[in-house]
Amino acid sequence: MALAYIFDMDGVIIDSEPIHFEVDIQTMEHYGLSITHEQLERFVGMTNPEMWAILKQEYPLPDTVEEIIEVQLANKISKLRASSLTPIDGIAQLLHELNRRNIPIGLASSSPRRFIMEVLSKFQIERYFQAVVSGEEVAKGKPAPDVYYEAARLLGVAPERCVVIEDSRNGIKAAKAAGMQCIGFVNENSGNQDLSAADRIVTSIREIKLGA
């Protein structure tokens, strides 16, 4: 039986991938460069520093990775604050039920902590999470398992006793590399993601039922 649940954020708690795609395309346009939604899908689940380091190798981006991220992140936070986004259907109920049963809850996201805290504050769900980890705070982001190992450590639960909810190929690879059970959530807005490595695949968060 699982002793803890660890959630990815983008595409699982909030349907924010469209914001990420839009802003990343706009950031490239800011530098006079073009990239498509489909070309960005491979980066879903990865951290900003890792994504922009790869793009700097592939495109003539003149600024440093840090400078690019500062432009990108400010735009993303602005769009998030102005949006009418609400938690993905079923998330509020699942968090409430886990909390009612005193099951530890963690969050392991590739987003920067600034963006994570903006989302949790907007939805007023900070109180549910006993551990929050950004992929930028560990040695390697997803698909490496570091962010999930750290979340489990902070929760005080062995990795093999954790269940992860993920919407991306990179995230599922990270969870499985950490030795955790993983539920793959099909979110069409996350692009064409191969979730086949997950232990179970759901098309709605409401399909996730806790044992009696």
UniProtKB/TrEMBL annotation:
Xref: Pfam families: HAD_2
Transmembrane helix found in the keyword field: no
Transmembrane recorded as keyword: no
Molecular function as annotated in GO: hydrolase activity; metal ion binding
Spans traversing the lipid bilayer: none
NCBIfam families: HAD-SF-IA-v1 (TIGR01549), HAD-SF-IA-v3 (TIGR01509)
PANTHER family (alphabetical): 2-DEOXYGLUCOSE-6-PHOSPHATE PHOSPHATASE 2 (PTHR18901), PSEUDOURIDINE-5'-PHOSPHATASE (PTHR18901:SF38)
Record-given protein name: HAD family phosphatase
Source organism (scientific name): Cohnella cholangitidis
Taxonomic lineage: Bacteria, Bacillati, Bacillota, Bacilli, Bacillales
